[in-house]
Amino acid sequence: MARTAARLGVSAHPASRRLVHRHPQQERTIARKPAAKAEPAPAPAPTLAELVAATLDDHKAEDVIVLDLKGRTSITDTMIIATGKSQRQVGAMADHVEKALKQAGQKVTIEGMPQCDWVLVDGGDIIVHLFRPEVRAFYNLEKMWGALEAKADAPTASAVRAKAIEQG
Question: What is the model's pTM?
Answer without folding.
Answer: 0.63
